[in-house]
Amino acid sequence: MGFFEFPSADIAPLVDDMVAAGVDLYLTGHAHSYERFAPQNASGAADPKGLTQLTVGTGGAFYTGTGTVAANSVVRQKNLFGVEKLVLHSSSWDYSFIPDNSTWTESGTGTCH
Q1: Cα separation of 50 and 70, whole Å?
Q2: pLDDT tens for residues 85-95?
Q3: Whether the Cβ atoms of residue 44 and residue 7 lie closer than 8 Å to each other
Q4: DSSP secondary-structure letter at 32?
Q5: Average confidence score pLDDT of the chain
Q6: DSSP, residue by residue, 59-78
Q7: pTM here?
Q8: Of 53, 55, 65, 101, which has the fewest beta carbons less than 10 angstroms from its beta carbon?
Q9: Nearest alpha-carbon partner for 70 in 44, 42, 41, 39
Q10: Are residues 93 and 87 in contact, defined by beta-carbon separation less than 8 angstroms?
Q11: Which distant-in-sequence residues (6+ apart) come within 8 Å of 11 by Cβ?
């Protein structure tokens, strides 16, 4: 999870279950930053059939950094506030980060397996 080891020991069984069930998108928000990961397996290794993690802890609390950069981390931003907009479709999803007081944004599409 960027700031935390993926998966942290306390949620590893949950992540294992999500990967085994074919979950495509995993949202977290404990770290007060923004980070997007490429699809990965339960061990955090790249896997095109794995789950995509979005960490969106940008809801207005204090800022934190992103810590050690994990291998599958694609995008990291800190010191910003905003929300993530998700639009779910039958076989895909669209995501857009909408900033509060920043010009930085990110958007894209993920595919369901």
Answers
A1: 16
A2: 999 999 999 99
A3: yes
A4: S
A5: 86
A6: SSS------SPPTTEEEEE-
A7: 0.85
A8: 101
A9: 44
A10: yes
A11: none
